[in-house]
């Protein structure tokens, strides 16, 4: 069978008029950075990359060495090339300007360099999530306000999952496409065209240790799922929680399911647990492009007008009928 690489796929997208040469370059550069992160993640203890970095990030969370390494790899790779005007990272407090005297590029890149940090030291899948917006600042240095665009303005979004194999999953607004890293060849091979999420599911993902903090609509929904066949939903459900959003969403894009990190009393003061610009928006774009839905429980995630770069939001995403059910429980409450 003829193998199609990411490069070939992107050239085809460009030829079809779906992406510009600059956006193609941007995605290629992100993919190259992801390969470098994958090498570091897979070496683990052999390269001395496990454990704490001894620093806190802007959110007051302890950074792992790999959080810092992945962040540096993405920043350095993307500074070069001229396709970007600026970057924003979960690990960096303010907008990261391009340190060269290039004309400003047409795009803004946002990322969670290493998602699922608590899983690094126990050798469970982690990932990288990214989002691309247009640069509205023209030739001047983009400000934080220039980044605060709703998710519906994203021109591309994707993630890499560093699991038994490294996969890159991407949308440029024309479906969701998956690629698997061929380590010997050093290239991403197109392995999952048009990934779709079935509208119904019998699998849910939530951190059940927070049950006592949940709001009533989420309690009701989880109780109903746990009641199984004899309950109001009339079917048995299975549960999975990797605690790496990338891995949980990847499972949902592969075989369906619903993922929830809802509002709860523990995270209410912060607005939620997951980050709007680096986690919720890019995953929402991918999930919607695959036929699923993504909501806070009360609003479509991609309709939110961001108020700050590191904003947090509740997230409920995946199989459409299930997400709509949880949303209806929130609206009834
Ligand atoms: O520790 P918990 O409550 O299970 O939370 C897990 C969630 O936190 C996250 O790890 C947050 O992401 P970071 O690791 O990038 O901070 C998500 O990937 C995951 O879904
Ligand atoms: Mg994360
Ligand atoms: Mg992270």
Automatic annotation (TrEMBL):
GO terms for molecular function: fructose 1,6-bisphosphate 1-phosphatase activity. Gene3D superfamilies: 3.40.190.80, Fructose-1,6-Bisphosphatase, subunit A, domain 1. Mg(2+) 1 binds at residues 90, 112, 114. Mg(2+) 2 binds at residues 112, 115, 279. Residues 197-329 form the Fructose-1-6-bisphosphatase class 1 C-terminal domain. The keyword Methyltransferase does not apply. Residues 5-192 form the Fructose-1-6-bisphosphatase class I N-terminal domain. Substrate binds at residues 115-118, 207, 273. Its cofactor is Mg(2+). Keywords: Carbohydrate metabolism, Cytoplasm, Hydrolase, Magnesium, Metal-binding. It catalyses: beta-D-fructose 1,6-bisphosphate + H2O = beta-D-fructose 6-phosphate + phosphate. Pfam families: FBPase, FBPase_C. Its EC number is 3.1.3.11. InterPro entries: FBPase_C_dom, FBPase_class-1, FBPase_N, FBPtase. Binds 2 magnesium ions per subunit. It comes from the Bacteria. It is found in: Cytoplasm. HAMAP family: FBPase_class1. PANTHER family: FRUCTOSE-1,6-BISPHOSPHATASE-RELATED, SEDOHEPTULOSE-1,7-BISPHOSPHATASE, CHLOROPLASTIC. Homotetramer. Belongs to the FBPase class 1 family. This is Fructose-1,6-bisphosphatase class 1.
